[in-house]
Amino acid sequence: MRMSAKVTLTALAAALLLASAVSTASAARLSTSSQNIRATFTSLEFAAPGVVTIRCQVTLEGSFHTRTIAKVARSLIGAITRVVVKEEACTNGRARALPPFPYHLTFEGFAGALPNITSVNLLLSRFLFNIEVEGLCNGDYGNATDNVAGRANREAGGNITELIPSGTAHLLRRNSGIFCPAEGNFSGRGSVMQLGTTTPIRVTLI
User: Fold this and answer.
1) How far apart are CA 90 and CA 13, in angstroms?
2) DSSP codes of every residue in 106-157
3) For the chain, percent helix, then strand, then coil, each to nearest 5?
4) Average pLDDT rounded to a whole number, residues 170-195
5) Where are the domains positioned within the chain?
6) pTM for the full model?
7) What does the angle CA 43 – CA 44 – CA 49 come to, to the nearest 5 degrees?
8) CB of 162 closer than 8 Å to CB of 176
9) CA dihedral 124, 67, 37, 131 (to 10 degrees)
10) What is the tens place of the pLDDT at every residue in 100-110?
């Protein structure tokens, strides 16, 4: 009887572990705590090495198409519908976002081993912006193939702690000035909140 009970308990424990593993492995979607989002950068940098580095306070606002995201690379999951640049606070020049909106937001994957996701990778495309450096350049940047990657770092509890952009934008047209750099690189660290609040966005696996 003792041996039989032991075997039964062992089998039950193994079944529970297997069920848990299958559940985790089969989880095909991510869930966000809010569909509407705001990303704020106290200093978003656009740098053309050896020419100019412009830093501005930037706020991006937009939404996910749904609160659940399939883990399918390059799937369109949302849009950025508004970009606010505090032009008067920019250094070494000025920058402003240009229409047409929305800019597209796609899912690119994640880092970490399931279920412990450490970051969610996103991609912003179809963007357009203008930079102005007095006496040097007034140009529009963002061609059809330009993308900006965004790594949304995630803590163990699920909250997104920061958004780190990286990528290159190329000169689309020079409007005036004697010289505009052919390209520039993005960098910075931003916070991601639910739109209209100071509550962080939370991402969970379902």
Assistant:
1) 60
2) EEEEEESSTT---EEEEEEES--EEEEETTTEEEEE--TT-EEEEEEEE-TT
3) 15, 55, 30
4) 98
5) 28-205
6) 0.85
7) 115
8) no
9) 10
10) 999 999 999 99
